[in-house]
Amino acid sequence: MDFLQLLSWACIVFTVGMFSTGLTDLKKMRESRSAENVQFLPFLTTCLNNLGWLYYGVLKQDGTVILVNTIGAVLQIVYIVFYLNYTKQKKLVMAQTAAAGAVLTCSYFYFMVYLPEGDTRLSQLGLTCSLFTVSMYLSPLTDLVQIVRSGNVACLSFPLTVATFFTSTSWCLYGLQLNDYYIMVPNTPGIFTSLIRFCLFWRFASVSQSSPSYKPMHI
User: How far apart are CA 215 and CA 157, in angstroms?
Assistant: First the structure.
């Protein structure tokens, strides 16, 4: 097994593991018959991100990207369906889902109809997916600032932080091996934000020792 193939399996295992952390929220919704205290937008934005990278993988004929994002998209759709079933804010959630569907439809026509086939379509799609992924990694920074101010890490998930770190590192190395900066660059912020969270756990974990476990939060 060469290094690229090893990285491919690492990307698959770590990324699917990270996507599977949503099963905790799914279990919570089933047991409580409620979507209270479960965030919906991370499911929706991750699904859009998966679909974008899935199309990128298809255009580039990259089996690893295709497999990972197919599994990710299916899981996010399952989470979304469960959330719709248990939430009390069905109109708001339906509106957000419809807006995401409109964005997806417009993107489809732009990349499939407007842009010519070949490198132009691939590069523009890669850039779009990269920017979207970077925004997802950087969006929780305001929450991290609040944690620094409060000194309480009870709202952070340590297993999710570990999964994010190894996932981002694997994809960064995978993109480097392929000389694909659209894969490598957007995963770099994931490494840095994970390191910041590790530092927060090291600095403030003793403050939260009375808590039975870390509560998962989508950041």
Answer: 6
pTM of the model: 0.86
Query: Residue 8, Cβ neighbours under 10 Å: how many?
Result: 21
| The two structure tokens encoding residue 161 | 């932080």
- Report the distance separating Cα 203 and Cα 191, nearest Å: 18
Listed range (4-13, 34-43, 64-73, 185-194) with the worst mean pLDDT: 34-43
Tokens 């099963």, residue?
Answer: 23
Amino acid at 219: I
CA–CA distance, 22 with 79 (Å, rounded to integer): 7
Secondary structure element (H or E) that encloses residue 148, with its range: helix 141-150
Residue 217: what pLDDT?
Answer: 35
Contacts of 115 (CB under 8 A, 6+ apart): 121, 124
| Tokens representing residue 120 in the block | 């132009």
Cβ-contact 27, 36 below 8 angstroms:
no
Percent residues over pLDDT 90 in the chain: 58
Per-residue burial over 31-41, b if 16 or more Cβ lie within 10 Å, else e, is eeeebeebebe
Other Cβ atoms within 10 Å of 215 Cβ, number? 14
